[in-house]
Automatic annotation (TrEMBL):
GO terms for biological process: thiamine diphosphate biosynthetic process; thiamine metabolic process. Keywords: ATP-binding, Kinase, Nucleotide-binding, Transferase. PANTHER family: THIAMINE PYROPHOSPHOKINASE. Pfam families: TPK_B1_binding, TPK_catalytic. It comes from Peribacillus saganii. The keyword ATP-binding applies. This is Thiamine diphosphokinase. One of its GO terms (molecular function) is ATP binding. It is an enzyme of class 2 (transferase).
């Protein structure tokens, strides 16, 4: 099962959601993301939010199609996205895709990306693959190990960004700018905007946490 979360970020940054639709896909609408899904002809299976980012008319349309909603208070200790993410992590999904989480308020965007670095995500080997996706980028988080990576024409560039203060032993094979057992520190841009020069490559590291960002031109 794949679970797709759609938040209320700028709709123009959303990828083609139909590419992620399948009989086994579970759609989760988050606040204004519920309205965005309905506009795109997708009825969410689950909805979360305080719905402070929709108009009264839009909320009426949402409730007309989904029925009564559990509306969370606007003053709470977790964002709507975090509430939805916590629920999603309990559902035994194979893949989680998060849309509408970038391009709006910077504080929300950073908090959304940081969800990928939580202990329960990094420490459990049975957790699903989690991707933050928009029209221009795909972001995942990786812990130490060796990974195979394939060239994708729609995401030409590959960047590796430390989440921890230092990431050790980075080795890149099959890339335009290869590395061999290099340590990089947070705040440095050595591993930004690389490219695969063959159809397949590998990257590995021995310590720390990396964000892997695949980007279009």
């Amino acid at each position: 099962m794949n679970i797709c979360l759609v938040a209320g970020g700028p709709p123009e940054l959303l990828p083609d959601l139909s590419l992620y639709q399948s009989p086994s896909t579970l759609w989760v609408g988050i606040d204004r993301g519920v309205f965005i899904l309905l506009e795109k002809g997708i009825k969410p299976d689950v909805a979360f939010g305080d719905f402070d980012s929709v108009t009264g008319d839009e909320l009426d349309l949402i409730t007309a199609q989904l029925g009564e909603l559990e509306i969370y208070p606007s003053e709470k200790d977790e964002t709507d996205m975090e509430i939805a993410f916590n629920w999603t992590m309990s559902q035994k999904a194979e893949n989680i895709f998060i849309f509408g989480a970038t391009g709006g308020r910077l504080d929300h965007m950073l908090a959304n990306i940081q969800l990928l670095t939580r202990d329960e995500v990094l420490l459990n080997s049975d957790d699903p693959e989690i991707h933050v996706v928009d029209r221009l980028n795909m972001i995942t988080v990786r812990k130490p190990g060796t990974y195979h990576i394939s060239r994708q024409t729609e995401f030409r560039y590959v960047s590796f960004l430390p989440v921890t203060r230092e990431v050790k032993g980075i080795t890149l094979n099959g890339f335009k700018y290869p590395l061999d057992n290099m340590d990089i520190k947070m705040g440095f841009s050595l591993c930004v905007s690389n490219e695969l020069i063959s159809n397949n490559g590998t990257f590995s590291f021995t310590d720390g946490i990396l964000l892997v960002v695949r980007s279009r031109d």
